[in-house]
Amino acid sequence: MTLGCAIALTIAGGTLAQDTSSSYPNRPVRLVAPFAPGGPVDAVARVLAPKLSDRLGQQFYVENHPGGSGNIGSYAHAGLGTPGYLAGEMLKQAFGLDMVAVSFNGGGPAITATIGGHTPILYTSISTAAAHIRQGSVRALAVTSAQRSSALPEVPTLAEAGAPDQESEIILGMLVPAGTAAPIIDRLHHEIVNIVATPEVRERLTALGFELIANSPGQFAERIKQEIDKWAKVIEAAGIKAQ
Fold first, then answer.
1. How far apart are CA 151 and CA 40, in angstroms?
2. What is the dihedral of CA 182, 184, 189, 194, to 10 degrees?
């Protein structure tokens, strides 16, 4: 199994452009996690939601909206176009491997299939796999990050395992609808930065294999652009089409 650790939580709301920072939030706020429970997006959402509720005085709640295909094949991932899927395709292209991807609705269903022996190889996040690795139900072959993970320091990187130039990471962030008022973006950013800086949240997320960054909205937007440029080459070479 190969592990990696841009996926995004989305704050859903149709009137964020009209709301002001002083009145926001004036109703419950929905966090949309576009994967099934059990994956990294879901894990982070369920850490952040109650903290945002406490700090902003309105309920923040998580809704999972998984999607993906159900093809039968050789290596599992959390869905077409996800970081695990693209990392697998990059490895196939680099080494001429004959593997067929199996799409699941999230990291939880994907690792369940691997534990059950239905898919022999899995690309997933450390947060999804760490507990299963420690229990011995799956074996970690490598991490896809440039450096070893503090959550699994005994697991080598792909470069150390003999597969250089295969670095990929699952980047988790929070997005809001286009046109959201700048004061609301600033307030959410301020609260999230403060939440992830608390010892409790930092310890929980670090134990799940996350490296906490909490950068600015502008920096996150630039990182997304960099990832698009990087993976566009893999997508084109693999002939991946939007579905």
1. 14
2. 140
Question: DSSP string of 7-30?
Answer: EEEEEE-S-TTT--TTT--SS-EE
Beta bridge partners of 32: 10, 63
CATH number attached to the domain at 1-243: 3.40.190.10
Rounded CA-CA distance 100/93 in Å is 12
Is a pLDDT exceeding 60 seen at residue 222? yes
The answer for residues whose C-beta is within 8 angstroms of residue 226's C-beta and 6 or more apart is none
**What is the tens place of the pLDDT at every residue in 98-143?**
988 888 887 888 899 999 999 999 998 888 888 899 999 999 999 9
Cβ atoms 214, 197 nearer than 8 A:
yes
Rounded to whole angstroms, how far apart are CA atoms 206 and 146? 17
Is the pTM above the cut of 0.90?
A: no
What is the token pair recorded at 19? 């709301």
CB 217 within 8 Å of CB 8: no
Could you give the CA distance from residue 214 to residue 140 in angstroms, rounded to a whole number?
A: 28
Confirm if 176 and 14 have CB atoms less than 8 A apart. no
Rounded to whole angstroms, the Cα distance separating 207 from 50 reads 19
Going from N- to C-terminal start, the domains of the chain cover 1-243
Range picked from 9-13, 66-70, 221-225 for highest mean pLDDT: 221-225
